[in-house]
Amino acid sequence: MHIQDTWKRATGAGIKVAVIDGGVNPSSPSLQGRVLPGKDFAGVEGDETDDLDGHGTSIAELIAGTGKGGGVKGLAPDAKIIPFRVPDSELEKKQKVNHDGFLQAFKAAVESDAQIINVSMGSDYYSSELRDVVEDAQKKGKLLFAASGNDAKKGSKEHYPAAFPEAVSVAATTPEGKVADFSQSASAVDISAPGVDIPGWCDETFSAYCMTQGTSNSTALASATAALIWSKHPEWTGNQVLRVMFESAARADDWKPGTMSRYLGHGIVRPNAHITRGLGKPGDPDVSPDTGKRVGGKPGSTPKPPVPSDQGPEATASGDSPALAGSAKADDSGSGTSSPYLIGGGIAAAAALAGAGALVARRRRQA
Q: Is residue 361 part of a domain?
């Protein structure tokens, strides 16, 4: 991703990202000074700063981690995180929780001053109430990135909120730039991002990182890409930021013009393509490039979004280098006492910190 060149021009400064997850630990060395007050909707002991399993903190670091203390350095290290803690299905099995927490957190995130909402979790069940909230987010000019889901091998059902037209559904790619075999395609995939061999906290003890995979990771990197572009163009609307993301994404050379892949959407996120080379045009500030609808603007002609094509599971997207898929790299450019994991830096890291082993978790949080 040539992220070092990108950071010379944009770092996510001035952008706030709402993270709807199991909480975010602001004491993580990589997140100190990056986490703003949020709200707790889990209905269990603690608050939004008490991460239930390490997942939410991992997502926040992929977005805005600084790399201090040997931690993960995210794509948008100067962005700020607003955490909204919710329970997941695994926690519901163990104790009494707030069953309305997910919907309540969405409403709070939409009403917050976050420009971007990251949802690295979801459900197979449709909710008209949630649909209304997602629509409201778009009307307010916010970008909502949601994980497409990890159950492709089980039939790839619709996954919500990713399946809602107003949400940006994010699929996962491998270090080779191919769609990951677990990444679901039924949720009308809009864009894709690296999701395999990404470092994240192993558990709620925050004692070691593990290498993880999932559309959770991809969603975080898509949110961070939006934060980078928006920080460079703070005068733009969310529609313009998203249009540039779509137009500058890496696509295979044989994709037909005006089409998008069923598996990779518009392609793999590539923030440097716009920030350092100017690819992608912002276009109409009041028309969503995702739904083609005029949102918050004067009535007028409504362009149609690209037509999905049947790019198969082996579809790849061409890019600037073999490191396009942006796997983690141990890098010595951070400001901590030891090297951070640098997202978007190049070659995949060989091992997790503190000798931790591989972790491939199955959960409603999509990592």
A: no
